[in-house]
């Protein structure tokens, strides 16, 4: 039997990347972050990365057709394992493409978890965010700092600020979320697979709520 299909979505800075990594690791599931996969393409200087980079740095969505291929490849590579989608789908057209892809694979989306955070909290969170380009670990300078400043706890890599984590770009990304991604709430509510989690407070406490909903043991 195939593992569970879970989507974790929410505004930029809601903590979905951190939570999706933890959930996938504890549940033995595939973590599929389109943001991470796109950043890897940019770093590798691939044709896809070159096409995607301008959109990403401007805080806009990369065209749907460019993202679809990497999602498909990653899902197929995961075989029958459960999966945690992080940052895909980002609009209704991507949601329809995902449905078609999952149907073709004989899989389904079982849960859509909305990690919600008030808008005023978001800008402060993101401008304090640092990430590891080597292993994709995410830190917050105040709430979740690395043990040694500027160095990744997981792999010893040098931490960076993402080029799209500046205040102006975050505001653009928030507007894109409101216009394009928020409509997914009604879609998944209509299918009775939506669960709403408030993404404020302790990382571990939020992770526990997610594990209970998904049925993953700590
Ligand atoms: P994230 O790491 O999820 O914040 O994504 C960073 C950036 O990658 C976004 O602002 C978009 O430019 C791009 N991106 C990530 N996922 C998608 C997606 N599903 N569709 C289009 N663009 C995406």
Q: Key features?
A:
single chain; two-stranded antiparallel ribbon; 218 residues; binds adenosine monophosphate; Rossmann fold; alpha/beta; 9 helices; five-stranded parallel β-sheet
Walk me through what this model shows.
Helix content is 48%, strand content 14%. With 218 residues, the protein is α/β, with parallel strands linked by helices. The chain has a single domain, classed as P-loop containing nucleotide triphosphate hydrolases (Rossmann fold, 3-Layer(aba) Sandwich). The strands form two sheets. A five-stranded parallel β-sheet has the order 2-3-1-4-7, with helices on both faces. Strands 5-6 form a two-stranded antiparallel ribbon.
Please describe the topology of this protein.
Blueprint: E1 5-9, H1 16-27, E2 30-33, H2 34-44, H3 47-57, H4 64-77, E3 83-86, H5 92-105, E4 111-116, H6 119-127, E5 129-131, E6 138-140, H7 167-181, H8 184-190, E7 194-198, H9 203-214
Parallel strand pairs: 1-3, 1-4, 2-3, 4-7
Antiparallel strand pairs: 5-6
Helix pairs in contact: 1-9, 2-3, 4-5, 6-7
Residues 12, 34-35, 38, 55-56, 59-62, 67, 87-88, 90, 94, 164, 173 line the site of adenosine monophosphate (AMP).
């Amino acid at each position: 039997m195939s593992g569970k299909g879970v989507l974790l979505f929410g505004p930029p800075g809601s903590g979905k990347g951190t939570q999706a990594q933890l959930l996938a690791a504890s549940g033995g599931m595939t973590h599929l972050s389109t943001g991470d996969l796109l950043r890897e393409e940019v770093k590798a200087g691939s044709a896809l990365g070159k096409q995607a980079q301008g959109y990403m740095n401007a805080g806009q969505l990369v065209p749907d057709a460019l993202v679809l291929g990497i999602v498909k490849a990653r899902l197929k590579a995961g075989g029958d394992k459960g999966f945690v989608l992080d940052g895909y789908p980002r609009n209704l057209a991507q949601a329809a493409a995902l449905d078609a892809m999952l149907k073709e694979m004989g899989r389904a989306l079982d849960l859509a978890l909305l990690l919600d955070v008030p808008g005023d909290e978001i800008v402060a969170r993101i401008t304090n965010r640092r990430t590891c380009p080597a292993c994709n670990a995410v830190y917050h300078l105040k709430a979740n700092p690395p043990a040694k400043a500027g160095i990744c706890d997981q792999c010893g890599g040098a931490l960076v600020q993402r080029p799209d984590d500046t205040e102006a770009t975050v505001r653009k990304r928030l507007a894109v979320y409101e216009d394009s991604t928020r409509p997914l709430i009604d879609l998944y509510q209509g299918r009775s697979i939506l669960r709403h989690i408030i993404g404020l407070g302790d990382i571990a406490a939020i992770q526990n709520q997610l594990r209970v909903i998904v049925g993953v043991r700590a």
